[in-house]
Amino acid sequence: MLERIQKANDIKKLAPEELPELAQEIRQFLIEKISRTGGHLASNLGVVELTMAIHLVFDLPKDKIIWDVGHQSYTHKILTGRKDGFDDLRKYGGMSGFPKRKESACDAFDTGHSSTSISAGLGYVCARDLQKEDYSVISVIGDGSLTGGMAYEALNNASRLKKNFIIVLNDNHMSISENVGGMSDYLAKLRTADFYTDLKKGVTNMLHNVPVVGDPMIEHIRKTKSSLKQLIVPGMFFEDMGITYLGPIQGHSIPMLVRALKEARKIEGPVLLHVLTKKGKGYEPAEEQPDKFHGIGPFQVETGEPEKPKKKDSYTDVFGKVMCDEAARNDKLAAITAAMADGTGLARFRKKYPNRFFDVGIAEEHAVTFAAGLAAGGMKPVFAVYSSFLQRAYDQMIHDVALQNLPVMFAVDRAGLVGNDGETHQGIFDLSYLSSIPNMVIMSPKHKWELADMVRFGISYEGPIAIRYPRGSACDVCPEFRSPIEYGKSEILYEESDIAIIFVGHMFEEALKVREDLKEKGYDCSLINARFIKPLDAKMLDRLTKKHRLIVTIEENVKSGGFGEHVSEYLMRIGADVRVQILALPDDYVEHGNVDVLRKETGLDVESMTAQICKMYETM
């Protein structure tokens, strides 16, 4: 069946009895390909039939499908003729693991963060109606994304629509980790409301048999706000907002899904179709551990075990262990996550200190202000979050934490280049946006021992502080470089003359190698660990200007507003007779690919950096 899917809408050429076979082939294809390349498996296995049904009912690219987060769009990519791209999935220059407008006209909107699809879909609907165009807009949002406040802002706004707008709620009980909160409980009750579904069918069938008045009565019940479902399920949330609710629908039955989508397409105004799916469906290891298979590297299909077992502790592991150790000594320490307990290393903390662990759902803005409230109430909150997701809470960091100088610690995971997830997930802006906030202290460790020391320092610090560290195995070279941390002080590893390299955090190993290469070429070179991005160690910079002609900064952050620019601005302000060279990422979005490849492409690999430094020094 897969060979017959070469472009969008080819699925419509298949006979109904062939569709289950296509679903099975898609699952086998995804398991086989992702086992080699890595990627998001469980979420994609769960939406195979749903995606097929959407493609059967609607016409692409005329109709617009917007995938919330977008990591579940693999079947959509297959059905729009991109099957061959899976050999290079998430590799540099290859197919993205998320929807990309530049990749296909069938990708209506670029996504990567949560809770955005209803807002984007609503924008499409209004643009369509203003321009008197005729197409359907379908926003597919997972139930985990309904823990994000932006989704409710959009639902509130959508309730005023008079024209059709379809919201598909993919209810699989999960976001990345298991769902939490009131909406999760509410949906769980709806899932079990079989009595309502059965009664609705019975009443509808009965009315169909009533001559003359039966069908108009059904239509009246469907349209009125005081609908049958509200009588039977009191306080129907979506209906109360003015959004027609259909469901729950079995999400792995293509005929049922097709019928429901066709029904949804007829409704004037916004309609929410509630679909029940199973994350990881069709692959037993993913069904049993959907969180493990949400995003996974290459694995063995037979067992589900990773192809390359993890050998070294990651920075995330180190953070999690220190948090547990410190919580045993400090009963005011609390941990917060935005639906990422496992991903941020807090799963162990959750088990050991459940009363001091808070999963707020995919709601970073709320998490930050909640942390501010905890801090104002006398606790020491630590919010562990991925760098690219913390961007969503910039206002709350300024207004609710830093303005009051509250002791909230931000554990900024996945800082720098994260690789295969691409533009929406690279943590390359945090130094810029964090350093613009008054009262904020920013640190970054060079290796795993320094991260442990920084976490302890951060917990004891009486003000807002962020510690940024990367994805992957923690650096474990040079344990001898571990001097005590002093507020605002950098660390001299080697002191010579002529050239001084100041590196930020996990660029330590690259900076060491650059220095070695420069030494081989006959240059004297000092090496300094910045430690603190903010505040700048002005005394250290003053000291360096006396013996060095060139000061080089190395950071895995965009150049604009980053560490290097702050160093350059300070030295220019004091009139230092020294050249500054900033080695940073370009002021651009960095696409998906292996981190080593991306560093090569952006000039942050050892060879490129050494060449740039030599060229600069020779022109002085």
Draw up the topology in text:
Elements: H1 19-37, H2 42-45, H3 48-57, E1 64-67, H4 74-79, H5 117-130, E2 137-142, H6 149-158, E3 165-171, H7 182-191, H8 194-208, H9 214-223, H10 228-232, H11 237-240, E4 244-250, H12 254-266, E5 270-276, H13 284-288, H14 315-329, E6 333-337, H15 347-352, E7 357-359, H16 364-376, E8 380-386, H17 387-390, H18 394-402, E9 409-413, H19 430-435, E10 441-443, H20 448-460, E11 465-468, E12 491-494, E13 498-503, H21 508-520, E14 525-529, E15 532-534, H22 538-547, E16 548-558, H23 563-573, E17 579-585, H24 595-602, H25 606-618
Helix pairs in contact: 3-12, 5-6, 8-9, 14-20, 16-18, 21-25
The CATH homologous superfamily of the largest domain is called Thiamin diphosphate (ThDP)-binding fold, Pyr/PP domains
Structure class? alpha/beta
| Mean pLDDT value | 91
What is the correct CATH architecture of the largest domain? 3-Layer(aba) Sandwich
CATH domain class name of the largest domain: Alpha Beta
Protein name: 1-deoxy-D-xylulose-5-phosphate synthase
Keywords: Isoprene biosynthesis, Magnesium, Metal-binding, Thiamine biosynthesis, Thiamine pyrophosphate, Transferase
GO molecular function, one term: thiamine pyrophosphate binding
Subunit structure: Homodimer.
